[in-house]
Amino acid sequence: MSACVPTRATDPNRTERTHPPHSPPPTGPRRFRIAGADVSASIAVFLIALPLSLGIALATGAPLQAGLVAAAVGGLVAGRLGGSPLQVSGPAAGLTVVTADLILRYGWRTTCAITVLAGLAQLGLGCLRVARGALAVSPAIVHGMLAGIGVTIAVAQLHIVLGGTPQSSVPDNLRSLPAQLAQVHPAAVSVSVLTLALLLLWPRLPGRAGRLLGKIPAALVAVAGATAVAALAGLRLPKVDLPSWSNHALAGLPEGPVLGLVAAVLTTTLVCSVQSLLGAVAVDKLVAGRPGLSARVGRSRLDRELLGQGAANIVSGSLGGLPIAGVAVRSSANVHAGAVSRNSTMLHGVLVVIAALLMVPLLELIPLASLAALVMAVGIQMVSLHHIRTVTRHREVWVYAVTTLGVVSLGVLEGVALGIAMAVGVALHRLTRTRITHEVSEGVHHVHVRGQLTFLAVPRLSRVLHLVPHGADTVVELDGSFMDHAAYETLQDWHKTHTAQGGTVEIAGRHPGTRISEPQAFTSCRCRPWTPWLNHQCDRPQSAPHSENDPDGTDRSEPDPTGPGGASGHELARGISAFQRNTAPLVRSELARLAREGQRPSQLFLTCADSRLVTSMITSSGPGDLFVVRNVGNLVPLPGEESGDDSVAAAIEYAVDVLKVRSITVCGHSGCGAMQALLSSEPGGTRTPLERWLRHGRPSLERVTDDSRAGGRIAGRAPEGAVEQLCLTNVVQQLEHLRAHDSVARALREGELELHGMYFHVGEAQAYLLTEVDGDRVFDHVRAAGLPA
């Protein structure tokens, strides 16, 4: 054993081993290899990035070469250093409005310097590890910002599509649009319409040929097709003009007012960072949808992604390129094309460099109207109907609308500021909005308070409480989780006055039937719905200091649990009270829905009656999720008249045939008393009800001693003793008993049902799922990511 383990040599003249003696000799330096999937994915991304980079540069008014520089740097620098391996960075449509405004105000060289400063700011934010904080921005603000940018892009590019020149702002573009429509350039319009038609129809080609041709990016087909038609028809149109790289303008010293430059850097930093971080999160969701890829690629490291984006912006600005951010279109294309590592992103950057150096004559054939149509389509797509429906459903449409209108009419930074102000206003409105109603039912006055009780709701609360007549029976239902001091004083004073006048008050949602108590601090309370009664302290009255009569300090404020009327009554009542106070307000609406619609569980969960197994806790399930059957030993009697018990069979039949469950799980557990009793039972002993029931577990006992029939084992270790071995084997055996039931067998044949085995180790709080490895049944850990590997 020791010969195989490298050890540090004690003799200075002895050579230290660097590898075990039985391993093969080193074969030299490891070669760098690129997976074929990364190569094909990089080509697909390159074909999308090339026309879009030129189109975005055209939309900003920057030199067209700046788009190619940004695409190359985004692929090479951000792709190598970023924390999201499969996200593709480059010139983004979301930065078009910001960059165009900067070029108009400060010129191109100063804009490049602003890009460099924004990259330095991103490096600082990455070092401060604030990337997660950027995701706290309301999605309604982000989507509203992108929608406003999309509208601005589309309106500006519409002028180029019509053969004209765009103005500096959306209002100016809208005012000049009638004059532009009166001077339409037919050639430009025809090329633009052809580009849009190809862009729209290419992904929808029918048949097998359509599926094959659909793999070619629609953006490339649209621009290439329009270019070919324009060249063959001899149309005279403004085309791409790429000056010599020797005349390419680089960054210069920033010139302009200091406050204006600071605002420009902050705006660029904000838009670049938020778009890149949200893009990284979106890429993680795409990766999770590809089986096996998430374990190989891993989740995005957002702080590293911010550092990578900052470095890319520094390089791009220094080389005269556009600002860089993560691009959703290219990233999704990268994932869908099968990329498996960051090599695809970097290789796409290499291809952009090759195209910029060797394909200049070909690129200069592209009409500007075709690129403008392409970018206009991208801008229109940024106004997502799905996002509008989502924010409307969450009642944040005003935040979305204010942000969009602010970006369109004022600018990106101003629009985002308006959106944040609107979001804060909506949040405050929700916090202070409290609904207080009063109704009379069967002589009892019900006052229902929905929402948080703060000083702002005190006038309405007082007005409603004074509608209750003196001496009336009253129920006050509090559905909020917070009550400030003003509301507490108001409710307490009314409570005292009303009871003094002969009335009764029941407070629902707190301690029913008791006086209102001061709000308590729960920072030291560790009680949860699953905390055992033995450990619950929050609901118990504080015991008085012990006196000479109880020198041991025993808490005499509670009845002795072992005496008459002890825990059986008081603990149950306290538990129900805690449920009514804490949990019922949270689940009332869901239970009301289930009461209306009926139960539709997806799984039958058959487990032991052991009090230590809390099924909802170990499965993280809620009301309506599991149809649970519990019995001693989690046994499934074989069907037939000789079983003598139909309760389990009836539950199985009802779950499969009536409830249409999709899976059945048999769950055993460690230290099962039924299995211990089964091991110590005598053959033929059926004198007591427990012995008669345990006879259904005898096939499991026989299976343990039968070497020809596979039982169960735990991955990584052997079962701890005969009891655990029988517990594991019993799960496997009961699954076979399940298959003997007609309803289960029929559903299995039709592919409508799955069977699962599970083992819960009580002492370790660890769940194991039954899998089959090389013909053996193995209970493997349920890892954080989900099912066993």
TrEMBL record:
Spans annotated as Disordered: 1-30, 537-571
Enzyme Commission (EC) number: 4.2.1.1
Topology term for the membrane: Multi-pass membrane protein
Domain SLC26A/SulP transporter: 37-393
Listed GO MF terms: carbonate dehydratase activity; zinc ion binding
GO biological process: transmembrane transport
Gene3D superfamilies: Carbonic anhydrase
Keywords: Lyase, Membrane, Metal-binding, Transmembrane, Transmembrane helix, Zinc
Cofactor note: Binds 1 zinc ion per subunit.
Annotated localization: Membrane
Compositional bias ranges of the Basic and acidic residues kind: 547-559
Cofactor: Zn(2+)
Protein name as it appears in the record: Carbonic anhydrase
Organism of origin: Streptomyces violarus
